[in-house]
Design goal:
With 490 residues, this protein is α/β, with parallel strands linked by helices. It is 25% helix and 21% strand. It is built from 13 helices and 21 strands. β9 and β10 form a beta hairpin. α5 packs antiparallel against α9, α7 packs parallel to α8 and α9 crosses α10. The structure holds zinc ion.
Length: 490
Amino acid sequence: MKTTGVRLTFLGGVNEVGGNNVLLEDFEYDVKIFLDFGINIKKFNDIFEKFEEPSSIKELIKLGLLPKAEDLSVKNLYLNYKTSKDKKFQEPSTNIDGILVSHPHKDHFYGLSFTNRTIPIYTGVFTKKIISAYYKSSRHSICNNYDGLDWRLFRTGDVLDIKGLEIVPVHVDHSIPAAYGFIIKTSKGIVVYSGDFRMHGPLSNMTQDFLLEIKKNLSNTPSKDLSDQDLEKDKTDRIKLLICEGTHINRGTIESEEFVEQNLEQLFVDNPFDFFLVKYDRLNLDRFRTFSFIAKKYGWKFIITEKDAYFYYVMNKDEIYASMKDPNIIDDDHIIILSWGNVKYRWQEKIRQKMYSEHKGYRFITQRDIKDLQKGFFFCITSLQKDIIEKINQNLKGAFISSSIDPYTEEYLDNNRTLNHYFRKHGIPSYKIHASGHAMPHHLINFINSVNPEYLVPIHTEHPLFFRDYFDNSEINVIIPNKNETIDLS
Ligand SMILES: [Zn+2]
């Protein structure tokens, strides 16, 4: 018997933060796509030590970190790793029509290393750029292998067409640039996938654009001009299903990037410190901008590593959004780059060449120069660089500012508590100044009420039941699938 309708299988990200992986099958269009192909990073880091790698795709499947394709109606989902080593990708054909990647956080894309190279990967132009920068600046391994992927890039405003199935990607604001939500016009109604988003970031208008685009498809939204009226027939009364992120549905802090800036400025009132060690997610460009702005304003230096510099240089390059050019690695002379020995990697060579060709080579310092640093600098560190304080002139007094990503999400490898403890023993007090990449409870609730879907599936949350309790007695039906469970739309 021919299966009809639309089926969603939740392979990751349900009842957990991250590792989003949803198989959407539209049997009318004969389409099978994945919404994100992430790996649960917290679980991954619990199992594997830093720099430790799984031995095979099989191992990851066994551990539940990658979906078990045999249980699905999916053919040849994974890369044949043995044959791919010689870079000849003669992959057997698959029945997967695409993977949509919402944004470049590992818990949404990290599974791509393992997929069959004939599967088209749909993602934003800049999203791919960040994934590539990440790839190029890390060691090639089974988990970091993006060779030969078939990228299909989009920007907001584009409409994807996969065998007649229309998908509208729209930018949203998140703690990383190039995050998208998707409006998928299935044969059984519109399915919206939010990806990760927030309303309190500097680009919150992007999330509003997503909401407006969703509403444009509803028949109770009047068309602005006459030419739009032929589109009326395509409109629907309600969004069929919303897959919505819910990281912070149960608990919120009133916060914003502006607060981060204001709080940081508070530290400069009667500031007894000569330097600040700071820790935040490298890819959080908003945070880098805030810290760098304050450093510049007070005439302080801002020290980053070569790898950071390479990343930001890639982000600055040929970018259309002004915000992605600020801070500017080449032009911002208060940014100092800590170099690491002789050139070992291609990315290292690239950033050095670029800086020297722009006559900015004087902005490099080496490990040996750290002891000569004078009062007035931010030093951007990871937990692996905590011993940097032993290299700083002992007469200088500093403080540590933790401005990290949210626990359990994305690349939460570093243990802040260990760091605070370590610094305390060195007479360095710790501060926490942060704003999250995820929407606060009231913003999530307002977003869901505005979309007003027939069905709501919370994802990327440890508190899915909260949604059921909250929307109980409303016209929104909350469905909470277990991992590997399906939902059929008819
Ligand atoms: Zn994210």
